[in-house]
Amino acid sequence: MSATPSDAANDDPLDDTAATGPVPCRVVVCRDCCCGSPKVTGVDHAAQTERLRAAAPVRVSDCLDVCDQANVIVVQPSSAGRAAGGRPVWLGLVNDPAATEDVVSWVRQGGPGVVPLPDILDLYVFSPLTRRRPDGS
Q1: pLDDT grade, residue 14 (50/70/90)?
Q2: CA–CA gap between residue 72 and residue 34 (Å, rounded)
Q3: Whole-model pTM above 0.85?
Q4: What is the per-residue pLDDT for 36?
Q5: Is the dihedral of CA 6, 7, 12, 16 positive or negative?
Q6: What residues does 110 pair with on adjacent strands?
Q7: For 68, phi and psi rounded to 5 degrees?
């Protein structure tokens, strides 16, 4: 079953704003297909996920259907970031610890809509293809 990055529901178990204050943003990592598998060599996938978890709540998706960009990370804006115009940012080919650290740093600063995307992360940004129904909608 695939998960997609989307807005959290009000009953989201990751929404702990009452206990700890606002969550800066959220991260979705693709795993269990090409991303997070031995197909992408030389990456400690578990360490990457845990490093991201140190910065923000992380959701793990089975597959985001963009295997040509493995490893895929989607950074979702906080509610403040979304109110400021931030939208989810898709990052692909995040396959080395330095790139993961760049993502962590941006997330800790506030992420989409709060702080501009660092230039170094421009190397990883991509737009996923939009799927269309057979009727064209």
Answers
A1: very low
A2: 10
A3: no
A4: 86
A5: positive
A6: none
A7: -70, -10
